[in-house]
Design brief:
Length: 499
């Protein structure tokens, strides 16, 4: 009886190693960004599955006659004549499997950056046709260092297998929980169906996790440590970013104050177009107020550009850009909102400056016709703290059909090169002013803000904001690099945010 109990306990604990037999199949789905689902189905049905079936059947037949060495039964079951070819193929298979995991990591990090859950990194798109083919140098170096550290530190394949088993089983259980939420919230399924799904599959996965828990002292602690570190980094980055956004919302500069300060500060309007990048959908950012207070001059045409990621994968081109007016008409200030999905490329295949100028001209020309159609679009971003637009402010969605995009850049260049010809189009004076400002040049004004905790803050908040978040902000990719702004057209404004 004692022997049966010990054997049962050992068999239960060994479930954490059994799950490793199916983890190779899971990495196949990481290739969905490189191959179509149909090609993966065909490859798995007619090549991968028969090969795995024959391999396991052959190894089982070998173990039925040789019980002395179970740990190395895979290579011992191979005939000596084909041992080295199989060894080489197995090595390449391990490399291909690791490549699938690396590409999946790139995809996850890219989406986390889009959702402000990870420090901004430089993303290189290696293909102009397939979106999923990306490369992130910083993450690639990080994976290499972690792999070398685990390999050199453990020096035992069994301990690595324990760490990998706990990581995989935990991911499977979390995926099951999220799938149950999707069934209720997205698919609108019956709650009983979602709970039954969670109980059936979640109970089996919890059984494997409980078996892997006993392997924590034997190497599985690596997975817990690394995941805890990355979760803390993501939480602190998201917390600091939200605090900075909250500071921007609470310290917005009213347009009346800007207008009233103009005469006292001796405000000067310089020729050209100024693009002020901000995270605010409404109001004037605090960085701009700090800028005009210390240097009372800004461009003849000022556009507040706001880039927002919405909770959908893609945003169609006709809904990409929204333009509205900020303040009185004589101020020449506008707001441009660019909307991207979390899978959209933040790269335009045409000149953004020309497209923006064309949109401003179109907005000015149709402003009177659309004045009665006020649109409140703040709710699309899911920010409860964003104020609604005033009813006197109206917006226009600038859309370009496929056949007109190629002509967008050419049309603006022709218009700006011959102002006399533009006058024949009977454009308004404000439209001509925008085109003349485009000839003077476009300047990108970026806020370079530093977050610091307030004095009465707790020691944990001071460590998170002043140490961790400051370190992440200093080593993350700068916004001007992400937007590929030329240094000659860049103007940075520094400001300290006390959050």
């Amino acid at each position: 009886m004692r022997f049966l109990k010990s054997t049962g306990v050992e068999g239960w604990i060994s479930l954490g190693g059994v799950v490793l037999a199916i983890t190779g199949v899971e990495t196949m789905f990481a290739n969905l960004g490189h191959f179509s689902p149909l090609s993966i189905r065909i490859a798995f049905t007619f090549l991968v599955y028969p090969s795995l079936l024959l391999t396991y059947m052959g190894e089982a037949a070998f173990l039925s006659k040789h019980h002395e060495d179970i740990e190395r039964s895979f290579y011992k079951a191979i005939p000596e004549t084909v041992f080295w070819p199989v060894f080489i193929v197995a090595t390449f298979a391990a490399m291909i499997g690791s490549q699938a995991v690396i590409s999946a990591t790139f995809s996850i990090i890219s989406q986390c950056c889009a959702l402000n859950c990870f420090p901004h990194v430089r993303i290189i798109h290696t293909s102009s046709k397939i979106y999923g083919q990306i490369y992130i140098p910083e993450v690639n170096w990080m994976l290499m260092c972690l792999s070398l550290a685990v390999t050199i530190g453990l020096r035992d394949t069994s301990m690595m297998g324990h760490a990998y088993g706990l990581a995989v089983t935990t991911v499977m259980f979390v995926t099951t929980c999220l799938m149950a939420m999707v069934m209720i919230i997205v698919w609108k399924q019956n709650t009983f169906t979602a709970v039954a799904f969670l109980l059936v599959f979640g109970s089996m996965e919890l059984l494997y996790i409980s078996a892997c828990i006993f392997k924590v002292p034997e190497g599985a602690w690596i997975a817990l440590t690394v995941s805890s570190i990355f979760m803390a980094v993501m939480y602190i980055w998201n917390y600091g970013t939200m605090k900075k956004h909250q500071f921007d919302v609470e310290n917005k500069v009213s347009m009346n104050r800007i207008v009233s300060l103009g005469p006292s500060l001796g405000m000067v309007r310089v020729p050209g177009i100024g693009l002020v990048y901000t995270n605010l959908v409404t109001g004037v950012p605090a960085v701009f107020g700090h800028f005009v207070t210390n240097l009372p001059a800004f461009h003849q045409v000022l556009v507040f550009v706001c880039i927002k990621y919405v909770q959908v994968p893609y945003v169609c081109e006709k809904e990409r850009i929204l333009i509205s007016r900020v303040g009185p008409k004589e101020c020449g200030m506008f707001r441009c909102i660019l909307r991207y999905g979390y899978k959209d490329l933040q790269q335009e295949n045409y000149n953004f400056e020309n497209r923006l100028v064309s949109g401003l001209v179109q907005f000015v020309e149709t402003e009177e016709q659309t004045a009665s159609k006020a649109t409140d679009f703040c709710g699309e971003f899911g920010n409860s703290d964003i104020e609604a637009f005033d009813s006197s402010v109206h917006t226009t969605t600038i859309s370009y059909p496929e056949e007109d995009r190629a002509r967008c850049s050419c049309d603006i260049q022709v218009m700006t090169s011959d102002i006399g010809r533009v006058e024949s189009f009977l454009l308004k004076d404000e439209s001509l002013q925008i085109l003349k400002a485009k000839e003077s040049g476009v300047t990108y004004v970026l806020g370079h803000s530093y977050a610091k905790s307030k004095k009465p803050s707790s020691i944990f908040k001071k460590f998170a904001i002043d140490v961790v978040y400051a370190f992440l902000s200093k080593n993350s990719t700068e916004p001007n690099i992400l937007m590929k702004v030329s240094p000659t057209s860049l103007l940075e404004v520094g400001m300290i945010y006390y959050v």
